[in-house]
Structure formats: C-alpha cells, structure tokens
Design brief:
The complex is a heterodimer of chains A (about 675) and B (about 375).
Chain A lengths: L1 H32 L4 H10 L1 H6 L5 H35 L11 H15 L1 H6 L1 H21 L5 H25 L5 H7 L9 H25 L5 H6 L4 H23 L5 H11 L5 H26 L9 H16 L24 H21 E4 L2 E4 L3 H32 L11 H15 L5 H23 L6 H24 L5 H8 L8 H20 L1 H6 L4 H6 L4 H23 L5 H11 L5 H26 L7 H19 L1
Antiparallel strand pairs in A: 1-2
Chain B lengths: L1 H30 L2 H16 L8 E3 L2 H9 L6 E2 L2 H8 L8 E2 L8 H7 L3 E4 L7 H4 L4 E4 L9 H15 L3 H20 L8 E6 L4 E5 L4 H8 L15 E5 L10 E5 L6 H6 L2 H4 L2 H5 L3 E3 L8 H26 L20 H7 L15 H11 L1
Parallel strand pairs in B: 1-2, 1-4, 2-3, 4-5, 6-9, 9-10
Antiparallel strand pairs in B: 6-7, 7-8
Helix pairs in contact in B: 1-4, 2-8, 7-8, 8-13, 9-13, 13-14
The chains are: A mainly alpha (about 675), B alpha/beta (about 375).
Amino acid sequence: MLAAESRVRRTSALGVTGLVLAVACTLAAFYSLTELGGPLAALAALTDAGTLGATAPPDPESLVLHYSWWPRLVMSLSAGGALGLAGVLMQQVLRNPLAAPTTLGVASGANLALMVATLMAPGLLVLGREWVALAGGGLAMGLVFALGWRRGLSPGVVVLGGLVVNLYFGALAVVLLLFNQEALKGVLVWGAGSLAQNGWDGVLYLLPRLVVAGALAIWLLRPLALLELDDASARSLGVSLKWLRLGGLGLAVFITGCVVAVVGIIGFIGLAAPNIARMAGARRLPARLGWSILFGALLLAITDLVLQGGVDALPTLLPTGATTAALGAPLLLWLIPRLRLTARRPPPSSNPQALRAEAPGRLLLVLAVLLALATLVGIQVGQSSSGWSLSLDGDILDWRWPRIFAAAGSGALLAIAGTLIQRVTANPMASPELLGISGGAAIALILTIFLVPAPSNLTLVGAGTVGALVVLGVLVALNRASGFQPERLLLSGVAITALFDAVRSIVLAGGDPRGQQVIAWLSGSTYYVDPVSALVVLGIGALAAIAAQALARWLDILPLGAATAKALGIHVERARLGLLATVAILTAVATLIVGPLSFVGLLAPHMARLMGLSRARAHLAGAALIGALLMVLADWVGRQLLFPQEVPAGLVASLIGGSYFMWGLRKL
Amino acid sequence: MRLSLNVRRALTVRRSVVSVASRRLRSGLFHSGGCCSLAWLALSAWLLASPASAAPRIASLDWTLAETLIALDAPPVALAQVDDYESWVGLEAPPGATDIGLRTQPNLELLSELDPDAIVISPMFANLAPRLSSIAEVKQLAMYSGEGTFWSQSLALTRQLGELVDRENAAEALIEETEAYIADIAARLPEDTRPLLLLQFMDERHVRLFGEHSLYQAVIERMGLTNAWQGTTNAWGFSLIGIEQLVNYPEARIVVVEPYIAGVREALANSGLWRHLGSVQRDDVVTLPPVWSFGALPSARRFATLLGDALSSTTSDTSASNTHTPDTSAPGTSTSDTHAPDTHALDTSVSDTSALGTSEQATTPDQVQGNTDARR
C-alpha cells in the first residue's frame, strides 16, 4: 500500500518536472520567434524547403527560420537528449553520480585532436571535423581504459584515469594555445559549444547515429541494471563485468563524441539531467534513462532558446555549451545536499595504498638531495643568446632564483594541500584543484583582467585572494550541515571548477585579445614572481610543512572513517573544518603564483604514496619534497625547452607528473 | 619530449605559411603600381639613406607597435613571436630583430642581455611593467582602448612612437603618405556604393564581423565606402556572431579576410543559409589575404591596397560579364574607364577574382602570374 503510494508520488513528481520543462521550452520557443514572424510563420518555413531554392530572393525571416532556427531547435533537443543518455550510462557503469560525459576525457581528447589537426594537418579537417574529434575522443577514452584495464575497469580507477587524462590533454591544449593563439581562435569558439546552425547538415549527421546508439542502449538495459549490485554479486550472476563496462562506457563515449563533434563541448547536461531525474524519483534504470533523455533535451533547448532571444546587445555570442555549464553549477550546488550519495555506493573494491617503504627516512633524504641538486642546476645552468652556459653572473642569477624558489615553495604548498585533502576525504581523486579554490581564484582573475583596464599585479593578486576566499565561504556554508562530508565537499568543488571552465570558455571564445593574458596566467608560470613574493611563498611553504606535522594524528585517523575517529576522541567536524581551511589558504597562495592548472596537488601525494610513504608524517614530508622537486624541474625544463619562448612551469609539471602518474597507475 | 616535438612541428608548419604569406605580400607591393608606390619607394629610400644609428634601441612586445616602428624605419631590436608576426601581420620582420619569446611572457634573461634603451608595450600587458622596468624604461602606448576613432588613435600612436625614437618627421611623413595613398586608391575605386560586410571566419558557423572601432571600417570609410553592419562591437572593433545574422543584409557585399579555417569552404558550399545570402548569390564575395586586424597605419595601408585591388578587378569583371545579361543593375559599369592609366597593372596584380565565390580559394600571386601569361 505504502509502496504503491510512494511510487505514485514519484511518478507524479517526474511528470510535473517534465511538464514544467516542456511548458518552459514552448514559451521560450514562442519568445524567440517574436521577431521572426511567430509560430505560424515558423511552421510555414519548416515545410517550404523546396520552394526556398527556387524563388529569387527569399525573405530573410523564412531563410533564418528554415536554415537556422529549426535545425538549431532539433539540434539542441537531440544533443541534449543524447548527453542525458550518455550521462545515465556512465553513472550507471561507474556507480558514481559525479560521472559525466566529460569525465572520461572525451571532450578534452576531441578538443586536443582538433587543435593538433588545425595546426599540423588541416587537410584532415576537410575530410570531416567530426572524424577528427571522434578519433581524439576515442584515443582519450582508450587511454583511460588502458589505465583501468588491469583492475577490471573498476569505477574508482576509471574515474581517476579519466581525470588524469583530462588534465593531461587539457595541459597539452593550453601549451598549443599559448603558442598558437591566433591560429586556434576557431577551435576556441567550437570548444565553447555553440548550437548555431546554418543548414540541416549537422542534424542529418547526428540523428541517425543517435538512433543506432539509442537502440544499442535499450539492448544493454538489462545487463546494465545488474551493475547496481556490487562486483561479487554481479559476477555470481554470470556477467562479464569488464566487457559490460567496456560496452556501456564505449557506447556513452560514442554518443558524446558525435555530439561534441557537431556542436562542440556542452557542459553539465550529461551530469544534471540524470541527477534531476533521480531527484524527481526515477529509481530503476529504464525510468532513469527515459526521463534523463527527456530532461536533457528540454534543458538544453530551453537554455539555447533563451540565449538566442536575449543577447543581441553583446558584441559576442554567448555559447550555449559553456552557458549550460555556468547555469548548471548553481544547480549542482543546490542538488548536492539532496543527493543520496553513500547509499548506492558499494565500498571501494580495492585500495591503492599497497606497498610500504621499509626505510621512509632514507627515501626522504634522497628526495631532499635531489631537490637541492635540481635547485642548483635550475639556478646555474641555462641558455642565453650565445647558447648553453653555466652561469655565476649575479645579474642573470637575480632573474633565476626568485622563480626557482617560488616554484619550490608553491610546489610544496600544493603538495601539502593535496595530501591533506586526499587523506581527509579518503578519496584519491581529491585535490585542491578539484575543491574549486583554484577555480574561484581564477574566475576572479579573469573578471579582473576583463573589467579593469591595465590591471597591475597587486590588483590581480588581491582579486585572486578574494575569489579564493569567496569559494571557501561557499564551501563552508554548503557543507556545514553535512559535517563536511568528503563526497559532498568534492561535488561542491566540481561545481565551482565547472563554473570556472565555463567562464574561461566564454571569455576565450569571444576572441578578445586580452584572452592571451588569461591563457598566460592560467598556464601557471613563475614568470611574474619578484624576489619578495618568492621569499614569502618559500617561507609559507616551510611553515606549512612544519604546521602540517602537527596535524599528522588527525590525518592518520580520519581516513579510517568518522565513527572510528569519533571513538578515538576526535571532534570530526572541527578537524575537517580546520584541515579544510588550511587547504584553502595553501591553495590560494600557491594558485596566485603558479595558476590553477598545475596538478602538483593531485600528483605529488600520489607519487609519494606510490613510493611507499603511507604514514601521514612521511607522506606529508615526501609529498612536499616531491611537489617542490617537480615544480623546480618543471620550471627549469619549461624555460629551456623552447628557448627563448617559455613553457610555463605549471604546464610542464602537469605533463611530467601526468606521464609518471599514468605509468604508476598502470602498475596498480 | 613529445611536447617539444609537437610544438616544434607546429612551428615548422607555420614557417612555411609565413614564406607563402610574405611572398604574396612582396608581389602585392610590387604590383600595386601607381604613383603612390613610387612615393612609398622614394620615402623608404629617403629613410634608408639616413640610417637610424643614433635612434634608441627599442624592444617591442606588441605587433602593432612593432609594425609602426618598422614603418618609421626605427625597427625594434627585439620583437616578441617573430614568426607569428610575419604570418599574422603579413609584413616582414626586421632582419636584425631578436625573438624574445611570447608576447605575454617575453624572456626576461634574454631581454636584459639585449639591454634595450626602452621597451614598448600595450596597456594590456601592464602587469609586466614592474619586471620589465628593471631592464629598461617601459613605455605603455595605447591602441584600441575604445576611446576615439581608429584613425585618431593610430595617428596619436604614430606620433608618440615618432617622438620616442626621435623621428617626428618620419612619423608625419608616414601619416601623410598613408592618408594620401588611401585617398589615391579611393579615387580609383569603381563607383560601387554597395555597403560591405567585413568578416573573418572562425569556423563554418561563426564569423568575426568588424564594425565600429575596427581598422577595417576606418579604412573603408576613408575610401568612401560604408559598412553594412552597425551593431555593437568590442574595443577591438569586432563582434563574434553566427552566420545566420548576415541574412539581414541582402544588399551588402561580403568581404572575407583570410585565413579560412580548413574545411570551412567545403562546409559553406553545403550550407543552405550561406548559399542564399545575397552576396553569395550575386557571386560578388571578395576574399583578401590575411591583414592584421588589430594593427595601426601600416596594416591599414596594406588593407587598403588589397581591398582596392580586389574591388577594382572584381567589379570590372562583373561589369564585363553583366553586359551579357539583361539585368545589369550592378553598379560600377561605367567607372572602369575612369581608372588611372596604370590600373591595368593593378587589375592583373591581385587575382583573377571573378570566380571568388563560396568555394574558391583566393589565387596566390604566383598563380595570377600564370593566369595573365596564359591570357597573353
């Protein structure tokens, strides 16, 4: 009786949500038609396809309606639905409400492939941009799968691999962008995801592929539903988990790839639609699939129609893909407290914390010696106009030491912050970058660059700090109620990071020359460091390293779970808040020096752990040393590699670190 | 390692683009004919005769400032992104200029080793000033600040730079010469008063449409032409829009500034909307080689040359073909006779642009040479 009642209530909640969205979509459509002659003219223009070609000069309205408005509406509905479908598939396979089409690196792979093709083989683009994009997306996905293959594509490893591939490809893309901004301005527009159409070509490309993919999804529905069980039970029912996951993810990636190829990167629909469906009460897989497709289609169409109607006054278009991401971020923040996270998540099937070093002390000493050596090389060896030289000249050294010191300091800061957050959340995906603190600082900086004429470095630093603090405030306000539960915290961070991505895409797509400065800063260079700030960063880094040792007890105990920690006499909420605030401050300082893209905060703690430094104290010290070493090396390599052009340290660090990380992950 | 390979390869590819571009440019200059070219040559000869040995050594992080300095014959000793300068500005970099790396992050060690007398930057990179000022005096020179017209801004910029390098006379001469040159081209234009749409493709669905504040609009207005598009623009004078908005200007003639992104031409040929645009249906789309859209007087001069050549040759071709069709509403038929005597050189110099429609590539000067030879 009760069950039936609750099912009725759920169905009606879903129905009401769907109805509201459908009505909103219709209203938005009528609104966008006001200047084009109204719905009747639209219907007339849709059908008179044949006559348009024949009559001498067709009137502009019906041209726009027939070749732009209608294809665009169909495109937004089908792309939105497709992303909703892909999102459900991924979330089902990875058992992770955070999983989304962009998580697996498909978008960044496609993006990078298009950039490379534009620069080196423009002929490929003539063959078809969608094929280039699909190849890049497929390659990225293949890499993710290769990383997770040995572990039976277990959800945690796949998400982690996807994240690393995303960051890695993203960093490569920023390098290309930094050196070829003029040549890549078209790719930037594409990357922001515009649904503008000027013919039926795109729709005719996408729809047949979606029909095939949809049929395959229905065929996979029953086996995929088994993935809601944990691994062992599913296996006992005779399901090959590996192939099932491969099939499900592969299908989702294909769908995403097709959409991305035609209209560019559309953020958040794939994440939001399935979550809204779930919140509205869709429980079983078929229901979630159906409702997600509907919600995704309507959400994207509404956004696009509203944008079409209202932005004539701006000297740039507001790309729909980036805008959905920007609008989706607050939506996700609202959703987080309402998400049921732990109930459906089986415990992580294995723990990468496998080996333990026999003599952590000796390992740390080796790291310290390496760091000292790297610093020495970084300061003394370099190129000048006359080639390589070993320099002891004070003038040259004055340029070098602040950069090396700042690199070391910020590397250590990020590594400590990363270690703290990974241990507090017991989540290997956690990193200061993912908490959104870097993203907050970056948003503030981008806005400053665009709103303040000729900003000084002090203005930029001030704005960045304010941004980081605002994000910290939002994080605290949102997560206070849940007692700073790790998953929710990370989700808030993901939302803020997505908002940052959206702001960046919109800003760069507009093609304003100030975008150069944004790219330069985002790529994380020690370039702007002067002696004073270098010493300040190094000092804070050293202080943080000492202070973090005092937190080691918390860090050893918190990963054991809230209950255990409480039993051992730790005020869990207060400990989490304290650690979180520390992380935020460390990240803000480091971000202001090396930008938000250096993945040292993610990589250094991992590398320390892969070396076998597992106790908190050794882990912290090891990560700090590795972080500093990584950044010093990255700074030096970056300055020498393409001399006189400089590849920013943050980018080099993520490339070096990413390669090592993928190699290490493979061995797990 | 992979990174370095990628980037290096990208650089090599670009270099070949550069050589093509500069070859185009050179032949463009030689063929542009007319007394103005002679004046230009005379001016350069005069400038060359008095080498700027005493002039201060300037490092320029900004291409617009660099092109103006070069035109004042006070070429910068250091320039950021030299290769990119050549391919995107379309002018040759001074042979002695040292590449100091990225515009956003010039190599400080190298710059201090070069020890210039002054460093010129645009306010966009003001945040570099504190670091740079320990190397040399830093001059911020504004262009595209959104205040004043393009013309007043570029004149002020030219004069400021002239003052900086102690060549006020050369600055005045450059201004006069450029204005006279553009006026001369304007005088020889066919009397085609159709408004223009000045655009650059971002991909097959989006264009930058240039309007108020832009170099392109300033030049066409000086040439007596009008811009069909009067919408909002940013401080750099363009707006990013979807192609569907071009539908509202069926009378306007479309001027595409290259480069086309690869694949765009093919996609446009299949685009229902593009094929129905007035200009495309009349087959009078004009394609121009790359011109630095955020430049100053030298780029303005280059744009005027290319546009003038293209408009003259296409219109005379259109008029020729129009005589066969009853509907000769296309203006400009009578003007071909009013051309200055040397326009024949001018006509053959650009390209045989009669076929410049949706899917035709702008012919390179080399091909043009072939065409004219064949015709003879």
